[in-house]
Design a protein that fits this description.
single chain; about 180 residues; alpha+beta; Cyclic Phosphodiesterase, Chain: A; about 30% strand; globular
Length: about 180
């Protein structure tokens, strides 16, 4: 799969990593434990098996214009994973700007191979991941560890694409070598 992801500015990144660590310290399998060197807090806008020809260049232009983008995180979302397991995420408030950017990304990706149905417009729930696959008991433990989970405002200042086949990332939003 290839993704289009928005990346947090340093203070926003630290705030999300603090929550990851709080969960890990409580014994929850959080994303703090992800060993991939490129893993970091992000918002996935799209995922597909293959991007259409020329999409990367058009995404560079689109994201260079759209960033920075300030968002608010609020509340926890729980998504079904394999069997009875769940994944816990921090909900991103879908502002007009964010929803329009998401739609424009998918316009660029028109004709993409095997688009993930979870990320297409009308089905997408914007979120930042907090945990890996949890048992129902671990979901309870996570809620206990987080207590009343506060809202957080932060800014996405960069973007990238991640290729799950090669495990490599590519910056997006750079026009003439200058990040967006």
């Amino acid at each position: 799969m290839q993704t289009v992801e928005l990346l947090c500015d340093p203070p926003f990144d630290r705030a999300v990593r603090t929550v990851w660590q709080r969960l890990a310290d409580a014994g929850v399998d959080s994303l703090a434990d992800n060993p991939h060197p490129g893993h970091r807090p992000h918002l996935t806008l799209a995922a597909c098996a293959r991007m259409p020809a020329g999409a990367t260049e058009r995404l560079d232009e689109l994201l260079a214009e759209a960033l920075p983008l300030t968002v608010r995180l609020t509340g926890l979302l729980s998504f079904a994973a394999r069997s009875r397991r769940r994944v816990l995420s921090w909900a991103v408030v879908p502002t007009v700007e964010l929803v329009q950017l998401h739609q424009r990304v998918w316009e660029v990706l028109d004709g993409a191979g095997e688009p993930s149905p979870h990320y297409i417009p009308g089905r997408w729930s914007p979120h930042l991941g907090l945990t890996r696959r949890l048992t129902p008991e671990d979901v309870t433990l996570a809620h206990t560890a987080l207590g009343r989970h506060p809202d957080l405002t932060g800014t996405f200042t960069a973007a990238r694409s991640f290729d799950s086949g090669t495990q490599l990332t590519r910056p997006l939003g750079a026009v003439d070598g200058t990040p967006g």
